[in-house]
Amino acid sequence: MPQPNFEYKNIVGVSKRKDPTRIPVGYVPYAMNVDSDNDKKLHRRRGRTLIDDPSTHSIWSNASICLCVQAGDLKEATLNFNTMTLTYTTLLADVGDTEMIFQDVADMVFFTNGDMFGYIRDRVAHGIPEVDQEFKKRMVGGHLMEYWDSRLWVFQEGILVYSDATEPWVRDERHNYVSFVGRGRMLRAVKDGLYVSDTKRCGFLQGGLGDPPRFNYTEVCDSPAIEGIAISSIEQVSGISMKVVLWATEDGCYMGLPGGQVNRVTGDHFLVDGAARGRAMVLIRTFKNQTKVRQFLGIYDLQPGYGGMEVTLEIPAIEVSARITS
User: Tens digit of pLDDT for each residue in 69-128?
Assistant: First the structure.
């Protein structure tokens, strides 16, 4: 194959704000499957081993149990580390192929795909029974779920529904909900509150005192989160280990701390154009000089109308692309 007549010795970073045909010297517009180290060198990103088939989705684990949906059934997956093969045990059949989400609460794991709502205890799936009490109803399913302040929280489109304290399967139909604009896009907890997003903005919800409970809402950024690209993580902040929330908007990536304090960690150096929804994870990378870096990785689908022509420049073991969007 033809050999390129140039090679990259190092890069300053990725430029997302310039026209791809007018990138400053030292920058690249788009890098695929690469990492950059402290010496500004590009390295091929280490991959993962595919050990399953595409019919498996909604994989979740809390280190005690691994759950997933496979061929329309809710299953427990067990990995044999010697052979790197998975075996499955069906916990609930015919749940459909809609994405399932999970949330562990004490010795239970709640699950919902919007229509179905239940919990798993001792590796047995249970439905939520009807509640025979005035003004009380069983909790509803949704597309986002979190546990905070001894309550289970579920986003059902634009309505954030929360359970009674200490009874995560029961809600009070008179007041156990908060309305938002459009579809909920983020629902993640820190020690003293919830980071939430609708289709307009991101905010911080805290409080919960009184009967009925009252919560205070504070806007923390005027761009909505990208649905699915939000994750809780234990991070070192000023030498203190704490639970934080990491999420992405079209303006870049944010870190939400306890108390509603928010840092825009990427500044103007990284913008997310055309993202519809995706998934996020935190990876720990160790470079050859033993430097350890925690990476916030988001993988997302593009909205209709984004994409266009892609020009690929191949260099040994690494692929760097210039993208021209239409």
Answer: 999 999 999 988 777 778 999 999 999 989 999 999 999 999 999 889 999 999 999 998
Cβ-in-10-Å burial (0-12, 13-18, 19+) of 56 comes to middle
User: How far apart are alpha carbons 100 and 96 in whole angstroms?
Assistant: 9
Distance between CA 43 and CA 226 in Å, rounded?
A: 28
Closest to 192 (Cα-Cα) out of 136, 268, 256, 266: 256
Name the residue with tokens 């692309």.
321
Rounded to whole angstroms, what are the CA distances from 264 to 268, 270, 305?
9, 11, 28
* Cβ 276 vs Cβ 303: under 8 Å: yes
**Dihedral sign computed on CA atoms, order 278, 282, 283, 289:** positive
- Among 120, 112, 131, which residue's Cα sits nearest to residue 89? 120
Cα torsion 104, 63, 99, 172 to 10°: value is 0
DSSP secondary structure string for all residues of 141-161: --SEEEEETTEEEEEETTEEE
Residue 5: the pLDDT is 43
> How far apart, in whole angstroms, are the C-alpha atoms of residue 232 and residue 190?
8
| Tokens 């944010």, located at residue | 254
Backbone angles phi, psi at 200, to 5 degrees: -115, -40
Of 45, 21, 35, 316, nearest to 13 (Cα)? 35
State the pTM of this model: 0.75
- Cβ atoms < 10 Å from Cβ of 148: 19
